Amino acid sequence: MSSLGRASVIIGAGTLVSRVTGLLRTIVLVAAIGAVGKASDAFTVANTLPNSIFAIISTGLLTAVIVPQIVRVSADPDGGRAFISKLFTLGTVVLIVTAAIATAASPWLVQLYAPDFTADQLALGTAFAYWCMPQILFYGLYALLGETLNARRIFTPFTWAPIVNNFVSIAGFVLFIVLFGSDRSGLEGWTPEMVTVLGGTATVGIVVQAGVLMLFWRRTGIHVRPDFRWRGVGLNQIGRLAGWTFLMVIAGQLAGLVQSRVVSAASGGNAAQTVMGNAWLIFMLPYSIIVLSIGTAYFTQLSEHAVAGRHDEVRGDVARSIRTLGVFLVGGTAALAVTAIPASRIFTNNRADAAAAAEVLLCFLVALVPLAVLFVVQRTFYAYNDTRTPFFFTLLQCVLVVVSAWIAAAVFPPQHLAAGIALGQSFASIVQVIVATWLLNRRLGGIAVGSWMRALVRFAIAALPAAGVGWLTFVLLGGIEGWMVSSTVLAVVGTMIVGGVSMLVYIGFLALLRAPELEPALDLVRRRLPGRR
């Protein structure tokens, strides 16, 4: 196996382990503070803020300046030491200033994202935010260090460091349960010590994540010193280099802000920020495993064909990749739909909360397959160095997300508000996919839409009986009142049984329909099994 192949295996394994330990982290956190409640939503808002702020910084600073230039300067006589020293000094200063300002503005930011929180809930969220905002600095250092390590072909630390973060968080959340008890979803009884343990744990995990990369820094062979002479770093090119991608992130963050503000009205006894976040985590699991692992390989091939001007082969790549992703994700959608309640029970503390969370998950699932199509279409535009067109159809999606969230606030009662917002987001994504596909089809003079649409319909025909048998299995095993919704462990077992039955039926019906995509898909799975080449 080549060095690049070994790196791909290591990165893939690290990503999978990171996802699994991330799920365990969420399970323990839910055990500590619940999924439906004022305290859990206050923590979710506070702990999400650093990610939202860093997403904007990382696009404006990292994507615009650091990532494109680190590889370029590595060929300099000094190995890029002078440039990287300037870069690290500038980046660290920007991150420190941003983290300090965000920490000072914590009360305003929490109120901005959750205007309908009660006074006590805002106070608790602000207390958490004071502990969480310093994460901005360490997220940034992790990105700075990681991108430099990757540029030097040292891939493993960047991929595996988040796993250490997850274990630190799990340990801290377990300590919280031991010291203060479990399911602290209400506002009653919260003390400064409890806030310190919970908020401090979240931040310490990010600190350790960045620290792990520092342990590997010597392998780069670069000696970095503070250098405040920033001339030549490329500040005047930030707007041009980041361009449409930066604006796309801004639009997405604004849409997320509106969603958070609207759903804050449901916080308390209903599904709100925490449930939406956990439902999205479940939703993204098949997307990240299937789309990112399989689709990325297709994107590499597609990019090579685009650069070479072989447009006919690009059209074939688009159709082939959508069919391949579709055969997995249509079945995955059916399996997740029938396991929505037990899967949601893994991240909730009782049956009622699981049912509410399952409703949100089902509304997100409407867009799972369309988002896979979008992945291919969007990256085809990127292959032709076009980020302007994706910005405009993403802006359309963001506008529809905002409008649908406002409509949900007017139409849905609090107990269904989170589901209404999720459904609106799925609708916005479907419209985005339709527009993006039309634009790409026009640009390339056709992308065989009919062929891959017929394949998706064929997959859906096989998925319907699979979903029916899966749901029947869930009902026969007790349904929502049964054993698989009685505890987290049994929910995992139940999800695996019902989902497994559904997938087996799906594969069987694809075989009966003689779907030509089935054998290549199964072969793709076999090649990724341990010991295969």
Automatic annotation (TrEMBL):
It is a multi-pass membrane protein. It comes from the Bacteria. Coiled coil: none annotated. Its main location: membrane. One of its GO terms (biological process) is lipid translocation. GO terms for cellular component: plasma membrane. The chain crosses the membrane at residues 7-33, 53-75, 87-110, 122-145, 157-182, 194-217, 238-259, 279-300, 321-343, 355-377, 389-412, 418-440, 452-477, 489-513. GO terms for molecular function: lipid-linked peptidoglycan transporter activity. It is found in: Cell membrane. The keyword Transmembrane helix applies. Keywords: Cell membrane, Cell shape, Membrane, Peptidoglycan synthesis, Transmembrane, Transmembrane helix. The keyword Transmembrane helix applies. PANTHER family: LIPID II FLIPPASE MURJ (PTHR47019:SF1). This is Murein biosynthesis integral membrane protein MurJ. It comes from Microbacterium rhizomatis. The gene is murJ.
